[in-house]
């Protein structure tokens, strides 16, 4: 007999617009909870990366195979009993529904912040295919978590370590693994 949903290692998606720190916070959260980590950008097909690098926003048709691959990864973590953390924009409700299709108990951490702060972070970032010029399109597409979606919203004015600690305590209050060095 399998573990109940409450006793399974969690599946989490750290979401938000480009530049909020999804990757940094998701890696820290995965580390604190002892969970596998995946970066959604690694699941994009080359055509999507080329389109974004050219400053062209992706449409829903572009995103569908990408979201299904991420859903498969999350579902695989549930099937393996490991849980996992993904850094993914997950800007729209229907995208989050797709992500939960293979892992229904997935919870979301929506990182938010002042647009001027996020824009300045993007301007300082190098080596990423997502140009700052697409930030406005991401904010236009963003649908914040709705009341029936499991998760929470945190402002990135806090540092990444504080965000990961706060998220671990609020999203996974009874997780059996150590959180931030605690013994259990």
TrEMBL record:
It catalyses: D-gluconate + ATP = 6-phospho-D-gluconate + ADP + H(+). Pathway: Carbohydrate acid metabolism. It is an enzyme of class 2 (transferase). Its EC number is 2.7.1.12. CDD domains: GntK (cd02021). GO terms for biological process: D-gluconate metabolic process. It comes from the Bacteria. Coiled coil: none annotated. GO terms for cellular component: cytoplasm. The keyword Ribosomal protein does not apply. One of its GO terms (molecular function) is gluconokinase activity. Keywords: ATP-binding, Gluconate utilization, Kinase, Nucleotide-binding, Transferase. NCBIfam families: therm_gnt_kin (TIGR01313). Belongs to the gluconokinase GntK/GntV family. This is Gluconokinase. It comes from Kitasatospora sp. CMC57.
């Amino acid at each position: 007999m399998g573990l109940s949903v409450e006793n399974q290692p969690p599946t989490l998606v750290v979401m938000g617009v480009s530049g909020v720190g999804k990757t940094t916070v998701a890696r820290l959260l995965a580390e604190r909870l002892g969970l596998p980590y995946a970066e959604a950008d690694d699941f994009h097909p080359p055509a999507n990366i080329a389109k974004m690098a050219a400053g062209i926003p992706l449409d829903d048709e572009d995103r569908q195979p990408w979201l299904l691959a991420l859903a498969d990864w999350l579902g695989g973590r549930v099937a393996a009993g490991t849980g996992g953390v993904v850094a993914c924009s997950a800007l729209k409700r229907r995208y989050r529904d797709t992500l939960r299709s293979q892992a229904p108990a997935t919870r979301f951490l929506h990182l938010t912040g002042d647009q001027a702060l996020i824009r300045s972070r993007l301007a300082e970032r190098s080596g990423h295919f997502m140009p700052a010029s697409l930030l406005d399109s991401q904010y236009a597409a963003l649908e914040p978590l709705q009341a029936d979606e499991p998760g929470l919203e945190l402002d990135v004015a806090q540092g990444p370590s504080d965000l990961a600690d706060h998220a671990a305590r609020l999203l996974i209050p009874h997780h059996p693994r150590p959180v931030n060095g605690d013994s259990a």
